[in-house]
Amino acid sequence: MYGKFGAVDEAGAAFDSIQRPNVFSWNNIVTVYTQNGFLERAHSEFDAMTERNSVSWNIMVTGYAQTGYLTQAEALLEKMPQYGVVSLSAMVVGFSRSGQTDQAEATFERIIQRNIITWTGFLTGYAQCGYIHEAYGIFKRMPAWNVVSWTAMIDLLGQMGQLENAKTLFDRVPELNAVSWTAMVAAYAANGHIRECRDLFDDMPERGIVTWNAMLAGFGSSLQAGEARRVFGRMPWHNLVSWNTMLALVARNAGSLEGLDIFHGMPARNCKSWNLVVHCHAANGDMGDAGKLVYRMPQHSVVTWTSMVVGYSCKGRVDEAISLFDWIPERNVVTWTGLLAGYAQVSDVGEVFRRMPAHNVVSSTAVIDAYGQNGHLVAAKELFDRLPEANELTLIAMLGAYAAKGCASESKRLFDSSPSQSVLTWNTMVSTYGNSLELCAAMAMFEKMPKHNTVSWNAIVTANARNGHLGEARMIFDTMPYRSSRSWSVMIDSYALSGQCFEAVEMLTLVMWEGFVPDESVFTGVLAACSHQGLLELGIRLFSLMVRDYSIAPALVHFKCLIALLTRAGQLDSAEQLLNEMPYHPDEVAWVTLLAGCSSHFDVGRASYATCNSSALHVLLGNVYDQQTFQMSF
After folding, report:
1. For residue 270, is it within any domain?
2. Domain count of the chain?
3. What is d(CA 446, CA 438) in angstroms, rounded to the nearest whole number?
4. Which residues span the domain enclosing 540?
């Protein structure tokens, strides 16, 4: 019971109090440790077991496989006295989630008696890697469908935005139950199709708290915060899942004050509730308030400490992140990866990586990515070459490191030397050539691809636009077989960067006309377009439309677009007021934007007000003084 709420230490103490634990007790504690990410503890207890059964082995194999430690999972699998469908299914799911579809398929073929979990894991893995058609082919290959398989496919198509196909499948389900209805409702909600979601919800023969929560979570995942709040207000009653879902929505938007209000209004809380409100504050940079909440928490979990470490790291307070990391009692791979992200800002991440007790795809990829961001290509390649199980994720990280330095030829050599290429690596190469201004190579790579997904099409549209071929980019966009919200953002951003503001706004109209609900990235593009052209009134109207009609909480980037619009229009008082009153700490870009306006309008007094210690700001301030001196000389 303790393990379900993340109370790992309490679960361990309860187990230690058992004088003669039997195999059932051992399996329970190993399960607690694996499910909460404490694989070292789990393996230690597994080794100490006086007797094991097939369940014991399956728990450990599944624990390693689900967290990406596939080498360790395979090693255990080979030691098993007799492995069966559960352990092999866990490996199929693990390989699929990590993008190793060839290994997943080979393992799948080893399973003699396949069950619904095996088929569903195999199907989902392909879909997560962008192989939608192949996933659908697996679905059709299944010897029999039950409500689980039908629902899994509906849910899958919903996640990929393929709502017409999802609804077609939904209508074919021979016996609909509450789970099937809930999957379709959630698919509409998650894709922002509010009207369809409401209509289907109203048609349901019966509605339970699970359906209400699914709709709530769906609107939350599609960033429809206003609609989520309306659903929450309509619910006949709320359980802990409902409250935590609302809290998670706020945490995703880093709304610390609103999160605290929800938290205080909760009739009951669990460890997840506390962790979410801590995350709200940490993600918003309010580390002092986050620390106070941690002090008040009745119990802590590895999630608590990870939020704090990542919070300090993201704010550049790396010394505090390292100090806390060294003090906390337990860490998992997410905690280590959070420290890596912060440490990369000030020093060699290799030091942290070498300290890690175990490495998996996530941590290895994080280090390669950090090396790439800091230009250490030799170190990144050395680590990549040493990895025992480099897969698509690590390959993409290495390709990205080359791409960031404009090394397209090195990227191509690495791509060609890879034993297998997936749609993910093909997409990375198309983007690499596009970013390197090698449009012909990008187009050739796109044409060679054995299959395309939405990301592929988005990448080639971006490549054309970035290389100045905006007309060709629009033609490709218009011929895309299907589009995601990201597709619209790509086209809007392309128009914005080329200064074609009205074309960007026209695309926003088309988004709404075709039934898509514009998200925050779409509005970022059109606001940026207005900012480039200095269209203050239009920008303010669009900002209001985003907040009022679509209930999108403005992010920092939206406020910076408004600040840029106000400064360009000479409304420096309003720009400064907005900068000081927005619910975010102004970053260097926000201050530079204000000072650029001061430079254009010769406002030395306001420019001097800026106190941010930055060389860029001091240089800009010097320019303001020089320009005023030059103006006064005439």
Report:
1. no
2. 4
3. 12
4. 483-554
- In Å, what is the CA distance from 156 to each residue of 9, 126, 187? 36, 10, 9
* Packing angle of the helix pair 23-35, 39-48 (nearest 10 deg): 170
- Tell me the pTM: 0.56
pLDDT tens track for 431-460 = 888 888 888 988 999 999 887 877 889 899
* Tokens of residue 553, six digits: 């909480």
CB count within 10 Å of CB 498 equals: 17
Is residue 531 within 8 Å of residue 566, measured between CB atoms?
Answer: no
pLDDT tier at 613, thresholds 50, 70, 90: very low
Are 186 and 200 spatial neighbours (Cβ–Cβ below 8 Å)? no
Phi and psi for 31 in degrees, rounded to 5?
-60, -45
3-class secondary structure, 436: coil
DSSP label of 450: S
**Cα gap 100→129, rounded to integer Å:** 9
Asked whether residue 404 is assigned to any structural domain, the reply reads yes
How many CA atoms within 13 Å lie on the side-chain side of 149? Answer: 21
In a domain, 308, yes or no: no
Contact 170, 182 (CB under 8 A): no
Helix (H, G, I), strand (E, B) or coil at 633: coil
Q: Tell me, what DSSP letter sits at residue 4?
A: G
